[in-house]
Amino acid sequence: MTTPDTSTEFAGRVALVTGGGSGIGQAIAVRWAAAGGTVAVLGRRKEALEETVRLAEAHGVSAEAVVCDVRDHVAVADAVDDVVTRHGRIDALVNNAAGNFVVPSEDLSPNGWKAVTDIVLNGTFYCTHAVGRHMLAQGGGTILNVIASYAWHGHPGTVHSAAAKGGVVAMTRTLAVEWGARNVRVNCIAPGPTETQGAGAALWPTAEARADVLASVPAGRFASPEEIAESAAFLLSDRAAFVTGDVLVADGAQWLGKAIYTDPLART
Ligand code: HXC
């Protein structure tokens, strides 16, 4: 196997990134563009998407904003068909769009449950279904789902998101096997606490909450969106050609550090 030139490894390829107007989604879209790829960013807020388009175009590639709510399966199918018509193909899909808020489960309304699970679980499937059909027809592609480690260890206050992301892991593993022989790879990335406005506002809105989160990360810091995008780029690239059905955890060992007992080493 020859080592590919990573600086242009996405040249001639097209990516669709959902939730690409901010945070991790924006960073992944820009990272894709920096390696020469064409990118379409899909989301609800036109202005935010256009900011990503500007950042991507600065790398000399073609980029476009697609205004669409991933909860609307008809709109998703139309939007995906439009991207394929304009660019001829989609080589990479990043299911990054998410919705989240912290609430005691007993206070979560059915509509609140539905809002989050519709975005995270149903939206991921709608996009995967629409794009996956094109990938199968064109002979391959790669799909990356952005999740969180509470998909398997759970987390108080985020039952909607944890349940939905657990479903996305099961979807990932199922499709990796179902589509593996047809050259479509499907993986997850599980970022830990990342310095983004969206996650901060939803999950650590106060200085105290932020300090608690920080204390839970053995690496002692938050991730930057760019370093999460770097790991995502690996999974999306041919460097990960034999990796499918897997979850790459990029969390500074946060979830492994969840202690059942107090840390005896902390007392020495
Ligand atoms: C309780 C809430 C609530 C809150 C909304 N709801 N916020 N309930 N506490 N803080 C309830 C509403 O009361 C309503 O139910 C239902 O949810 C739908 O709310 P809407 O605002 O009408 O929905 P909508 O405008 O579609 O917004 C969807 C959303 C919103 C999920 C609620 O937060 C959103 O769009 N977020 C996108 C951005 C985001 O959240 N990013 C953070 C992702 S970070 P009722 O019953 O009143 O009608 C992330 C990282 C995880 O996921 C990893 C960490 C390590």
TrEMBL record:
Coiled coil: none annotated. This is 2,4-dienoyl-CoA reductase. GO terms for molecular function: 2,4-dienoyl-CoA reductase (NADPH) activity. GO terms for biological process: fatty acid catabolic process. Keywords: NADP, Oxidoreductase. The keyword Oxidoreductase applies. Pfam families: adh_short_C2.
